[in-house]
Request: fold
Amino acid sequence: MLRAQPAGRSLGHAFTFPRYRLGLPASTPIVPVFVNTYYPPNVPSAARCYEFGKALRRAVEDWETSARVAVIASGGLSHFVVDEDLDHAVLAAITARDGQALGSLERDQLRSGTSEILNWIVAAGALENLSATVLDYVPGYRTPAGTGAGMAFVRWD
Reply:
């Protein structure tokens, strides 16, 4: 079992791309939190992801340091077939701090890559005491058949 990042190896793009886009130096510490959003049989429910986010916030609040902590969730919203209604419902629940709505999303709504919404739900739980603002939403259609991905940026203050 690995307990440290092997020398010369990088974390996956879900962790390193946000660091790059935010202009953070490579020396900025990252604590990667992996959520199995994709592979059965142990994909957590939306409700469990929200509760996990709240537990993550409590851990950060209880940490005895003056360090600043940023919570960054990466992943898209609907995938492969864009579902704008689902994407807007998730973003509305995030901005309304509606953990019940987020936690009530059913597994069949979060199939395939759309399951990355669970990462957003963890962040929403961790940041539920802050105000969320949707900065942008883009339904990225690739074909006339509706394939693509829903993409958004949200900031919590």
